[in-house]
Each structure stands twice: as C-alpha cells, then as structure tokens.
Specification:
alpha/beta; CBS-domain; 3-stranded mixed β-sheet; 5 helices; 6 strands; globular
Amino acid sequence: MSKTVADIMNHKLLYIRDGDRVALARRHIIDFGITAVPVLDETHRPVGVVSLRDLAGNEGDRFEPSGKVETVKASATIEEGARQLAESDYHHLVVVDDKGVAVGMVSSLDFVRALVGLPPRHPDKFEAF
C-alpha cells in the first residue's frame, strides 16, 4: 500500500484565525521554528497561509493572508501530493479531510524526505504542543 500525505504531515496543526494580528503569526512562526501557518475560518477551513515572506514586508497590525490556498487531501498518495505541490509553486500545502476541514500541514521538505525514504521530522517544539 502506498504511503499517504497523512503519513508525513504534521498532525499538530498550529494555525491562526482570519483577522488575527500580525504579531501572533510572527510569534507562532518564530517560537515553533516553522516558515508558514495556515489561516482558518470559524469552521476550521483554510482561507490563507501566512509565511515568513508575508511577514517580512508587513510592519502593520493586520495582514492579508496569501490569496489562493493550496490544499491536499490527507488520503492523497505521497506522489500525488508532491506533484500538486510542485505544480503550485508554493512550499506548503494545507492538508484537509474529505469535508475540507484543515487537519495538518505538509511542506516541500516533508515530501523530499518521504521520496528518498527518510521518516517524517517536525520541529521539536511540536512535541509539547
């Protein structure tokens, strides 16, 4: 049986809400040693992603999350997810269930590790999260 995105994603989903302050996104990214967080609506569906690049040029109090959100189903194979990410020109995908609810995140590095046979690895800070 082929491995799926669920096998390599970070199941501990750190996120922010639409309308949260820039400082919260920046704090999450820095404190957890990650490069992006999804922005979720009140139904836990992704409406954007905030990355280090988005924060670098934003000195304001609020932000506009990245326009289009690229998602992948947790049940997709590693190869399907990797292809989708490569075609998207992004570095992260928000992982969703069959109802479109966010359940995790997966990065380009997660796919590279899986494709060369290495186990998933996520920042240590998530262990206590």
